[in-house]
């Protein structure tokens, strides 16, 4: 448990914008993956990088740590879990340490001149769960959050934080395959409806027949949502 956030600098893989950098996107991988692994996977599904004229895409890699669902084996995971279930309590100690480490990553973007409302955070599976904790508990000033094939536990600290929230919350863009055998579709759906009941504006897109996987249609929908949340200079002239 001795991970002081000051000592952790996450490895990362970055896709730089083709033009002037005016927004940033942080994309968190699922358990056992790496930033480079997620970038490569997306590239295979889309047949090209997720790349933009003005948005820098950052794929951090989670630290290598003991993971209880693997009987304490080491894995690249954002936090620990007692088990993969919607009903069990969250391992808040490890989640909170990582919220701090990722908040430092956001601060780095802000120091380089990117406003909070020009930053999006999201992820696949466990990465989506991490992104929801980060945005709704620590960084309600970001442009939006996305969660693919993901869920929050029933008693999530995110829900508790939102009961006390006032002001505008980042919009949530959520996708889930109906054939997901690892994170059941119903968990994703339930997460979405609880967040909506707590005042989050949400989109929920279901993908028939898709397993715990990324699909091209989903990544294309995500790309348009990203551009809608983080428009480039042309689209921003009327702001």
Structure, explained:
- The chain is an alpha/beta fold and 239 residues long.
- It has one domain (5-230): Rossmann fold, CATH 3.40.50.
- The protein is built from 7 helices and 9 strands, in the order ββαβββαβαβαβαβαα.
- Strand 2, helix 1 and strand 3 (55-60) form a beta-alpha-beta unit.
- The longest helix is centred in the middle third of the chain and has 20 residues, at 92-111.
- The protein is globular.
- 41% of the residues are buried.
- The model has no long low-confidence stretch (mean pLDDT 93).
Shape descriptor reads globular
Q: Number of DSSP helices?
A: 7
Enumerate the strands of the largest sheet in spatial order, edge to edge or round the barrel. Answer: 1-3-2-6-7-8-9
**Radius of gyration (Å):** 17 Å
Kindly, what is the distance between the CA atoms of the first and last residues, rounded to a whole number of angstroms? 46 Å
Task: Report the sheet-strand fraction.
Answer: 15-25%
Which structural class should the secondary elements be placed in? alpha/beta
And the CATH topology? Rossmann fold
What is the architecture at the second tier of CATH?
A: 3-Layer(aba) Sandwich
- Mind describing the biggest β-sheet? 7 strands, mixed
Q: Level of helix content?
A: 25-40%
> H/E order of the elements?
EEHEEEHEHEHEHEHH
The CATH superfamily is known as: Alpha/Beta hydrolase fold, catalytic domain
The total tally of domains equals 1
Let me know the average pLDDT.
93
> How many runs of DSSP E, i.e. beta strands?
9
CATH class: Alpha Beta
Low-confidence stretches: none
EC number: 3.1.2.22
Catalytic activity: S-hexadecanoyl-L-cysteinyl-[protein] + H2O = L-cysteinyl-[protein] + hexadecanoate + H(+)
Family: Belongs to the AB hydrolase superfamily. AB hydrolase 2 family.
Enzyme class: hydrolase
